[in-house]
Amino acid sequence: MTSSRAPGDEIRTQRYGDLRESTAAIQGFFDRVGPRLYAIFFGALGYRASLRHFMRAHHHRFGLRDHMAILDAGIGTGFLTVGLLRESPIPLEAVGMDFSRGMLTGLKRRLTTEGLESRVRLNLADMRRMPFPHHAFDLVITSAAMEYLPQVRDGIVECARVLRPGGRLLFIATRDSLMGKAIAATWKNKVLSPIHVADCMRRAGMTRVERLRFPWYFPHVNAWGMALLGQKAS
């Protein structure tokens, strides 16, 4: 299945000369670790399974339709995109973007193993300067990625830029909780306040920002994760 609307093709490279030192350090960390250890850790924690069940419970909220343009900003191991593609009632394609070449290389292998390589196009780029035009996507999803930005609002503003009017942004991240801080200490990320993130989404032009929960049978994920869904003003 192909779609002429999806931006991006093969893995493409952005220059990183002007990135902050802390961001470059995180990029190097993930290039070294790659997706295998990350997938093992969060698979054991139940996060991978929780995302698939989350998509099963909430996909009707995302305005899914044939040939829509979808971006996973900070795709990493691909947990979120794979969950969406598997649980969507209609066939979908997506663009995946990450700033770690190591993570994308490992993800390409996983997508091939799962038979999804033709449905996900990968780009190597910085979330704060995406190589896509304004209003390119109908849905932007992001999971466990923006905690690594120096300022989360920069990533949210960029997500809003590439969203079409009426498009939706699904934001999943590590929240400021005891368990969230424990995970952040292991994976060198920040913890975020849902109130602050929701405020950033509204300032970026999102309306009807609502908080979604993981299914009740993943209480530990609800203890450290948060999910917000906003819609860009038409």
Order of helices and strands: HHEHEHEEHEHHEHE
What does the average pLDDT come to?
A: 86
Net shape: globular
Radius of gyration equals 16 Å
The beta-strand count equals 7
Number of helices: 8
Low-confidence stretches: 1-21
Write up what this structure looks like:
The chain has one domain: Rossmann fold (3-Layer(aba) Sandwich). It is built from eight helices and seven strands. Strands 3-2-1-4-5-7-6 form a seven-stranded mixed beta sheet, sandwiched between helices. It is globular. The N terminus is likely disordered.
Nutshell version of this structure?
This protein is an alpha/beta fold and 234 residues long.
Supply database-style keywords.
alpha/beta; 7-stranded mixed beta sheet; 21% strand; disordered N terminus; globular; 41% helix; 234 residues; single chain; 8 helices; Rossmann fold; 7 strands
